[in-house]
User: Fold these one by one.
Assistant:
Number 1:
Amino acid sequence: MFVTPCQQVKVTHKSLFSLMLSIDEIKKPIATEIDVFEEKFKTSMQSSVPLLDRITHYIVKRKGKQIRPMFVFFSASICGGINESTHRGAALVELLHTATLVHDDVVDNSYQRRGFFSINALWKNKIAVLVGDYLLSKGLLLSIDNGDFKLLKIVSEAVKQMSEGELLQIEKVRRMDISEEVYYEVIRQKTASLIASCCACGAASANTDDATVEKMRLFGEKIGIAFQIKDDMFDFGTDDVGKPLGIDIKEKKVTLPLIYALNNCADSDRKRMINLVKNHNDDPEKIARIISFVQQNGGLAYAETQMKKYTDEAFAILDTFPTSDSHTSLEQLVRFTTERNK
């Protein structure tokens, strides 16, 4: 296949790290722990109700890359060591996160999740809501039965913030008045709080002091913010990112690339673009115009700079911990999540 100079630049601009290291290679220091965790996680979801067992089996079969449990285990490893409490912390995070995803699909009327049918698509909304409630209760009981109150507090705080962030975004979308400050508050609550809870849970499970737990929480929060900025950039990128363009525009979500472009253009252009987002967000031609506007007004370049700033701040925190295989892999995991192309 003939490759143009422009295409070559695009290929070489992608991090060689992302092309060379797979998620399986990154998790090697904790591969055995992850295998054990997966079995324990399956057990934690079991029910005596056949319908519920079928649904939870379906959920387990279509699990993702296990990024969140990896953050829990790596954080525990660099903060003192992995133990049974770490496994429960990872299961707690996954149970509560899965519950929120099931409920989100109902709220968003979404019928797909990671390329598979969502629970509400296969079993309807009523059952999906009940399944989400069941997973939430299983997570709560897992912690209470084992006295993991510190872990439960960390993750419960994250779930609270995720709900607040979602509602804040809905409120601001209606009024189309999201500033850069509000944007960061939304993604800190909606996305970063969960990654922060993973890292804090890992540290807390290793019986480390409160200051170290807070340090790891902040590390995870900065990674979560960088992750979401990267995700928001995909909406205004090129066709090879593995994700359809303009999804956020269709949902009237005002993200960092668009916020920057709107704040750095003529008033007439700003009014015209806001009108397109508000009233023509389902027109492919208009969406293409918005994407071009963001690209030409430096929105993507600015978002890239901000993403790197948060990533660098996270690495500065991580570098205060002693070097080890887990330390190296945690750094690689961060790069994997922020340098991905889909």
Number 2:
Amino acid sequence: MKRRDLLKGAAALPLLAQTMLGNTTTRSKLIKPKRLSPGDKVGVIAPASGITPETWDRAIKNIEGLGFKPEVGKYARGIRSFLSGTDEERLHDLHWAFSDTSIKAVWCVRGGGGAPRLLPAIDFGLIRRNPKVFIGFSDITALHVAIYQNCGLVTFHGPVGTSTYSDYTKMHVMNVLTNPSAPYNIDISPVNAASTSPYYHSETLVKGRGRGRLIGGNLSLLAALAGTKYALGDLKGKILFIEDIGEPPYRIDRMLTQLRQSANLRELAGIALGVFDDTGPTAAANAQPVIDVFRDRLGDLGVPLSYGLSFGHIRDNMTIPYGIEAEFDADKLSLTLLEPAVT
């Protein structure tokens, strides 16, 4: 073999390693979508699970109540087992919402399951050429991670169409998307702070403050992406936010262990935990052990850590821009956005 062929092969090794081990870097240029205005048309899609016609009515009223004009994707109202449609149908609506220039935002109607199935076929170039607000949470975490890693686009971990738009939820989603300011502080919801449920009891597990870009989402999805090319990328200096619902302590322990063994969590600038609510019959019995799991699995990392910030599968749900610079204060249980997330 000629020397230049060897050099070509050696030069290709880093790219090959990245392909095999997953995307470990994020595009250097951060892309911010344009801010929303009253009357803007938003595309409503169901890239994961479907919902009933009655729930659709509520979702449309929710979005209209924010002052926007919802336009539902062609296949979004479908139901196919636990999904809203085939992979091709759900992907069609995602691409439609980003490519239609009259649509200013892409609003996911719910999470559920199935979003990771779309990742290999997503046209990230299309999304990069047509940046706009993309919002949702839960199973939508897979799309947040993949879009940020492959496009550098700031997306929004926030309420889906079917969420309860309480005063707290509505205030933060509108401030972040339509009336941005910096610094912008997001404290724990007074309603959540007053809750008697042990799951809403906030606690500083490791004192300190950290500053960095926000990444994260639903724990089940972050664990499911670990080891794939869609896994969380470079964690150095990032603030990781995590939430989930209905998961017993042993499963939370397992997923956190998977994250620890697949990524260097010690490089993080901080870990902000949301409310891991559980409405099942064993909720009261599991509440304290859940806190113990977080303390055991994350408390030794040497990074600021606190539990109970107001985000996740809960009524009062803050909107977290994925990828922007923020400061996390574990002592004060607060998150401060240091830059606007929209232009």
Number 3:
Amino acid sequence: MALVLDARRALDGKIRRTPIEASPALSERAGAPVFLKLEALQLTGSFKIRGAYFVLSRLSADERQRGIVTCSAGNHGKAVARVAHELGVPAEVHVPRDVDPAKFQAMVALGATVVRSDFEGYDDTERLARAAAAASGRPFLSAFDDVRILAANGGTVAAEVLEDCPEARCFLLPVGGGGLAGGFAYLATHQLAGCRVIGCQLEGSPALALSLARGEAVTTLPAHSTTAGGLEGGIGRIGFEALRSRVDRVALLTEPEIFDAVRFVLAHHQYLIEPSAAVVVAAILTGKAGRLDTPSVAVISGRNVALSTVQRILAA
């Protein structure tokens, strides 16, 4: 809790307080009021700037001079690149071979050194990034497996949702490494007893579902080709520990179902969101979220998607 408060103070005036918007179309489908927390309208196009700014702003003078290394499927790297540029910190971002082109170009434009790996999967790419950090003596910044990231990325979003939509009792969250979902679930369940948390994942890369079944974090998975790169790969140990006793249901969505959700949001809200973000909407549209009998908030995590991907989605 104290770390979330620290993060909120650090981020005050540095990021946008993104709006919550009612969704009549989703409410009709769900049979209960549904609201969208629009982190897709956040600076750099996703919630990731929250954690990036909180951690980078607290680097020591020596760490700032040496610079940092990180690994990203795209949004975290874009956020780190922007904050590092503002703070004058050298940043090296390792990305999978099939990283979204729009995200890759944004990181380069923001001045980061972007290293594209020979692997399509996030987990193999992160292994190389960690090795590069260790060899050079630079700190490695995890995109999700860091308590500071959970506090800033998930905790501060949850705090805003609870303040701006106090009637909400159910929360739908995209789950990749667990940085957003873990931090959100920790704060929400602490402050709102009896609320429900629904984790939404790729059917082809279901790290949270597998972790719950095995009773331990599944931190690596085989590479899975997807346009929803932010949901691919294993879950962080810290995020899983935050979620294991707080998540009530896991919805597993397919790529076509996610594409349908991207089109639905564009048609009904006129927002273009990325596939990783659309998974929460897909969970409602398909019924995989289960019955929503209380006001619910779906966190729309990002908007960064290449034009070529948008054309594929619209043509499908």
Number 4:
Amino acid sequence: MVDFDLAMLYGVRNKRLNEQVKRNTKRFPDDFMFQLTQEEWHILRSQILSAKTPEDQAIALLRSQFATTKDISKIRTLPYAFTRNGIGMLSSVLGSDTAVAMNIRIMRAFTASQQIMESNAILFKRVFHLEQHQQETDDKINAILAKMDDNSPKLLPEQIFATGCVWDAWAYVSDLVRSAKQRIVLIDNFVDDRVLSLLDKRADNVEAIIHTRYYESFQTDLKKHNEQYREILFVQLPHKSHDRFLIIDDDLYLLGASVKDMGIGLCAITKMQTTPETILELLK
């Protein structure tokens, strides 16, 4: 306990308490009393001055009234800290009945706290083991999740679908759509309402554009779709485009068949090294 806290408890000025201690320095060796370092005092003072609750503020007020004639923030001399033995010795140097009575109460509190620690040692040990067990469990769960992630299917840069694998092809393209963070651009001569449903799987704030040929039936579907769901933009292909392409953010995929027909016959999807902008520029 620091000197101004003890002075508050004993009902004396902090200056008087330290004067009595200095007059009896032989009774206070290093294991009874020591002076706080500048860093320790800075941390302690910050805690006192940042008191938030009414209880903490009341304690801070008492300190300012009893522990020193100045505000805590204006204390310039580094405080002294007293160990249990040092506190026990204080009553002999202060001498007053109040100091002796308060010292007895403090020492009894020390004894009671020690008894509480000893009586609850088993409980504290169990809590410690539970925390260790919880940490081990968390580590095992994290390892399992990492293993699951390693073994989970990945979007391969090249995928071939045998004839009849319609669902596999649809699921693969759906995963590509879901992976988009910024934009999806589909370049395909022939699209229908199934493609609109596919693009609706994209995340929020992801732009979707279809470059395709003009068909009255598709325009009707697109208009009705955009009236109810997030807008999908249409761009008229300026000329016939033989190959189909899918742009996901900054990645370009070559599609071996129209999206609506993927998997009906043998086809492939290949991630290209060419930039999406190269293909978009060629469409102009």
